[in-house]
Every structure is written in C-alpha cells, then in structure tokens.
Amino acid sequence: MEIDGKLFDIGSRTFIVGILNVTPDSFFDGGQYDSLPQAVKRAKKMVEDGADIIEIGGESSRPGFVPVELDVELERVIPIVKELKMEVTVPIAVDTYKSEVARAALQNGASVINDVMCFKKDPLLPKVCAEFGATCVIMHNRDNMNYDNLLLDVMADIKDGIDRLISAGVDEKNIIIDPGIGFAKDTAQNLTVLRNLSFFSSYPYPVMLGASRKSFIGHTLGFSVDERLEATLATTALAINQYCDFIRVHDVRENKRVAMMADEIIRNNH
Q: Does any domain span residue 75?
C-alpha cells in the first residue's frame, strides 16, 4: 500500500497511527492540543516516538458527542493540516465524515480520510476521496445494535462501505477496514470483536484497530480513562497476534515499543 508516496509494506510490521484530537471535548485529551502550536508540538513528538501516520480529529466521536458546525470543524482542522504538511514527513489523516472537510484537508496535504460513519452519512465523501486518490479507512458503525451474527453483520456493514467507495471510483488498494471498537457495540460485543480480529484480517484489506483508552476498558476493569494505558497495550499485542496492520493510539511511544517486540515474535521481522 502506498500512502502519500510512501510505501506501507502490509504484513511486514505494524504501523502506528497517532491520534491528534484538536477538540475541546474528546474523551481523553480534549482541550490539550486545540491550538496550532500545541497541535504541531504534539504531532512532532508522536513522530519522534514512532508514529507512521498522524490523524487529526476536529469533532469528538465519544459517546454523547455534540456535532459541530462545518465551519468550526474546518477552522480546527485545516490550519493544522497545512502546518503539519510542512513540519512532519509522515502522511496526515483526517477523521471526518463531511465531504467539505475532506476536500479541504486533501487539498492542503492530507492523504487519508477516516470516516467513523462507514462512508454512509455524506454521499459525496466517497467521490471526493476518489477524486484525490485518498486512502480510505472504513470504520464500522451503525445506528443500532441489533445483530443476528455480530462478526458477519459487522463485516457486511463494512462491505457496504467498500461498495460505496469502489462505486465512486476509489481504488480497492486504497481501502483499510476498522471493526469499530466502541461504536454501536456494548462491552461484551467489543470484547467479542477483539477476540476475533483474525476474522477481519482474513479479508484482503489491511485492518486498523482503534481501542486506545476506550470506555469498554473502563467497563471491564473499572479503570478511569487516565488509568487505561496498560490495558490498551494488551489490546495492541492481541491485535498484532491476529495480524492487524494499523494500531490507532493516543500513547505512541508505549504502543510502538509493544508493536516492535510483538512484530519480532509474531511476524519474525528482522
């Protein structure tokens, strides 16, 4: 897979996506990096710590989040995309389901769009991604938890997103799938997905996992968001053991080190 002119040799090692929330209300780091200098400093530190991609989020998707207006999201995201394009050498991703935000981000140097709405909320978004040759992360989500078979139904929803992208002209080799930990799933369902990540990696698409510090950890172990690092690291090691390719995290340095060791053991990477 090639992203922004850089080769991501899928299967050779695990790639780390550093989360850069530039919102006041994200569940873990809301308000910490919502100014341009803070965001740039944080992104540079994540790259130094081993991030292969920096993902910018301008609207929280935590449970109970309040959607933001288009102009607000643009004001939060686009200046940081522009600045990071000059300051870091890794690809820049943007977490958005709005075609207008995606277009502006891609015009200004982003190369990856991660849609937490499975590319179904804004029908123009797949076309924008196709126009710019963007890498697309399809994250599973739906408006109910009425599953007949959890794994099959999640993958069916993802396949619908894949079909939307391909129909719009997105190259199949530019698609990454994410089973959507924490979205339209209760704690037991999240754990089931984690136990069965190899089901998703058996499909011909790279798999991304985003379990970092999420509430299912708190519900399982009783830990506050500030106490969930070690549990997140456990999910990272488990995901690599089931051949996930991208790990999307807040704590880059720690997860990178887990990935390096797990890759040596599991992928025999020398």
A: yes
